[in-house]
Design a protein that fits this description.
The chain is built from twelve helices and 13 strands. It is α/β, with parallel strands linked by helices. The chain is globular, with a radius of gyration of 21 Å. Bound molecules: pyridoxal-5'-phosphate (PLP). This is Aminotransferase DegT.
């Protein structure tokens, strides 16, 4: 094998395109000394809001803090049930628990890997019948960049007077029915962890919303709940600000994002062409455009996955397992899950359990070629 390696992610190739701009921007912040709340934070917020077509963007310190600030603003806490998919990154479940609320895990669809609306409705009904917890919020996750069924989530939240929060951490740039993520639900949480579709050089995140009152609460909560004047604390908040340096780096990287998303879509199409019909792929619902944060396939079982992953490794093709355990099996969350719905306990989560044994993510970043994607797919196909 003399083929060059294909990495799962590449967070450095992009730098060559904008290095002078990055260096100029970083030097300007160093010269200014405004390391917190510099003007670059507001510049980034305006750019994010314009890109997503939303009224307000609020920069925060990470995707996890974005989720936490959004739930703190609603007053989510003890006695509240927060419904979220069992197959997602741990941060989605961690936040309600940190706030004293109870996560209620919902199964996902086999085709989209996103929250299953029928199962969501069933679990809300179970919680209501029991009357112990108050159905309070739904966190929809756009897993691997593919939008969840937001029209259905919004309809359920409107009917039940629940808060709809979009965990779009993996999906910035995706759209649904012609509308970029950010306007779906009451608010959307973004992560700029380095490997996301828009990545910082450290931790960073943002909240997007059309609701001016919520945006104001988010600004207050990210700065220790400070009100109109400094040291006038109106609400219990946190230190959740976005650094000026990360903001200016993200401003420079925003100039590349449209082209990068277009390349991600080309790579996704190349993978789909090569793999559909042979392995499970994530299928977009009508009107959904994937941002391809990750390209993830579904293999028949854990043995096939181990075999394919070993072959990819031998061919110097990167791969990863997102996620090897559904959240209700995580030691830290199992007790909360068991206690979330009483009686006979919560219904099973068979699709989430199956996916955790079957999924495998293949290289996906804008600085690889469609030939790279076809080569990675070829290794999968010859090792099924
Ligand atoms: C990355 C991620 C988060 C957390 O973002 P951080 O910036 O790492 O805190 C939350 N939810 C999902 C689905 C994620 O992928």
């Amino acid at each position: 094998m003399t083929d060059r390696p294909i990495a799962l992610f590449d967070v450095k190739a992009q730098q060559a395109l904008i290095r002078p701009e990055l260096d100029r921007r970083i030097a300007a912040v160093l010269d200014s000394g405004r390391f917190i709340n510099g003007p670059e934070v507001a510049e980034l917020e305006a750019t994010l809001a314009r890109f997503a077509g939303v009224a307000h963007a609020v920069g925060v310190s990470s995707g996890t803090d974005a989720l936490q600030i959004a739930m703190m603003a609603e007053g989510v806490g003890p006695g509240d049930a927060v419904f979220l998919p069992a197959f997602t990154y741990t941060a989605t479940a961690e936040v309600p628990l940190v706030l004293g609320a109870t996560p209620v895990f919902v199964d996902v669809e086999a085709e989209t890997f996103n929250i299953d609306i029928a199962d969501l409705a069933r679990r809300i009904a179970l919680v209501k019948r029991e009357g112990r917890l108050r159905p309070r919020a739904v966190v929809g996750v756009d897993l691997f960049g593919l939008p969840a069924d937001w029209r259905a989530i919004e309809a359920i939240c409107a009917a039940e007077q629940m808060f709809a929060l979009d965990d779009a951490a993996q999906a910035f740039g995706a759209s649904l029915h012609g509308q970029r993520l950010g306007r779906w639900g009451h608010a959307a949480a973004l992560s700029f962890y380095p490997t996301k579709t828009l990545g910082a050089y450290g931790d960073a995140g943002a909240l997007l919303t059309d609701d001016a009152d919520r945006a104001e609460q988010y600004r207050m909560l990210r700065t220790h709940g400070e009100g109109k004047t400094r040291y006038e604390v109106e609400r219990t908040g946190m230190n959740g600000r976005l650094d000026t340096l990360q903001a200016t780096i993200l401003c420079a990287k925003m100039t590349l994002l449209e082209d990068e998303l277009a390349q991600r879509r080309r790579l996704g199409a190349a993978y789909d062409d090569a793999l559909a019909g042979s392995v499970g792929i994530q299928v977009a619902r009508e009107g959904a455009e994937n941002a391809y944060g990750l390209y993830t396939i579904r293999l028949p079982d854990a043995a096939a996955r181990a075999r394919v992953q070993a072959a990819l490794g031998a061919a110097q093709v990167g791969s990863g397992i997102y996620y090897p355990k559904p959240l209700h099996h995580q030691p830290a969350y199992a007790a909360a899950h068991a206690g979330s719905i009483g009686g006979n306990g919560p219904p099973p989560l068979p699709v989430s359990e199956a996916l955790s044994q079957q999924v495998l993510s293949l290289p996906m970043h804008p600085y690889m070629t469609e030939d790279d994607a076809r080569r990675a797919a070829g290794v999968v196909l010859t090792n099924l």
